[in-house]
Design goal:
The structure is a single chain. The protein contains 14 helices and 11 strands. The longest helix is centred in the middle third of the chain and has 21 residues, at 215-235. Strand 3 (39-44), helix 2 and strand 4 form a beta-alpha-beta unit. The protein starts with a strand and ends with a helix. The strands form 3 sheets. Strands 1-2-9-6-5-3-4 form a 7-stranded mixed sheet, sandwiched between helices. It has a two-stranded antiparallel sheet with strand order 7-8. Strands 10-11 form a two-stranded antiparallel ribbon. The chain folds into 2 domains: 3-175, Rossmann fold (3-Layer(aba) Sandwich), CATH 3.40.50; 186-362, Dehydroquinate synthase-like - alpha domain (Dehydroquinate synthase-like, alpha domain), CATH 1.20.1090.10. It is of the alpha/beta class and 363 residues long.
Length: 363
């Protein structure tokens, strides 16, 4: 059984990450190592419950955990107050207290809202992330960002609240449809663009193995992505500075998601479009070459990701982007790639001109 271990070093809030193939049954072992409470509620949607709920329940119950479950609806459109209250209602009904814990089993929506429920119930109870999608494994499960959406924008209501443990079984990726797997690869590619050119090149060279969902290739890709994110979070836990670079492509991507009603584009797909737009802007600002733009676009397309932005008016895009969390004192701040393997955050004085040029160039 393949298992890699790493730690996100945040002092007293440090936590372990296990990455491997076939390690879901070892969840109870990991919980025991971090002294997780013995009374737990697992939060998942009906599909994840049918796929992995039994395995998790058996692991926990055989180790003596008092096991409860809370089923929430699937989909980004349900990451809202109503679903959050459903989790809180369940915890109250089960008589949970501060010596109880939550387990998020599923994708990014489940992880985000379960983490926020943990942060807000009784002013904070422990929780664990067990991500079952690629997007969640390399992004939302690590770093402690928890949130729900507001009709005016994505993740506008939330808290930084670190998990006690992250348990990543890459075998769960075998159950993803092709589109969901591709959406996760967008975030994997992002890490290569912002921090590691050799990893970007490795992804290109190992595209076929990754698309075949080879266990060894998946473990290596997920581990490197998690390590890059952990290194950034360790020096900037609450996104005061450096952590913002993790949002490459997200400002425009969140606008795409918002304008399409969170139904047309999956998060990773919208981020892929956003990274191509940003690459064009970075080229316009002499931060990267035309060859870099082509390489980014081609790698995203190789993983079956969209690269063409939907046809909304530029003013509509700008209005959506100005509600982004990275807007500071009315100024739009963008994460821009500097070649491939480096990036920076820059305040943009005339975003309308830059985005209009970028969108025209992509067309």
């Amino acid at each position: 059984m393949k298992l890699k271990r790493m730690v996100v070093g945040l002092g007293e809030r440090s936590y372990s990450i296990w990455i491997g193939g076939g390690i879901l049954p070892r969840l109870s072992q990991a919980l025991q190592e971090v002294n997780f409470p013995k009374k737990v509620a697992v939060v998942f949607n009906p599909l994840v419950q049918s796929l992995y709920g039994g395995t998790v329940a058996e692991s926990l119950q055989s180790a003596g955990y008092e096991y409860h479950q809370i089923i929430i609806p699937d989909g980004e459109e349900h990451k809202n107050w109503t679903t959050l209250q459903k989790i809180h209602d369940g915890l109250i009904a089960y008589g949970f207290d501060r010596q109880s814990g939550l387990i998020a089993l599923g994708g990014g929506v489940t992880g985000d809202i379960c983490g926020f429920a943990a942060a807000t119930f009784l002013r904070g109870i422990p929780y664990v992330q067990v991500p079952t999608t690629l997007l969640a494994q390399v992004d939302s499960s690590v770093g402690g960002k928890t949130a729900i959406n507001h009709p005016k924008g994505k993740n506008l209501i939330g808290a930084f609240y670190q998990p006690r443990h992250v348990h990543i079984d890459v075998d769960t990726l075998q159950s993803l449809d092709a589109r969901e797997f591709a959406a996760g690869m967008a975030e994997v590619v992002k890490y290569g663009i912002i921090r590691d050119k050799s990893f970007f090149e490795w992804l290109s060279q190992n595209r076929e193995a990754l698309q075949k969902r080879d266990t060894e290739a998946l473990i290596r890709a997920v581990k490197r992505a998690c390590q890059i994110k952990a290194n950034i979070v360790e020096v900037d836990e609450r996104e005061n500075a450096q952590r913002a670079i993790l949002n490459l492509g997200h400002t425009f991507g969140h606008a795409v998601e918002n304008l399409s009603g969170y139904r047309t584009y999956r998060h990773g797909e919208a981020v892929a479009v956003g990274m191509v737009v940003i690459a064009h802007i970075s080229q316009r600002l002499d931060l990267c070459s035309a060859a870099d733009v082509v390489a980014i676009r081609q790698l995203l397309q190789a993983f079956d990701l969209p690269v063409m932005p939907p046809d909304y008016p530029i003013d509509t895009y700008l209005d959506a982007m100005m509600r982004d969390k990275k807007v500071l004192k009315g100024k739009l701040r963008l994460v821009l790639n500097r070649g491939i393997g480096d990036c920076l955050v820059r305040e943009i004085d005339e975003p309308a001109t830059l985005f209009a040029e970028a969108l025209n160039n992509i067309q």
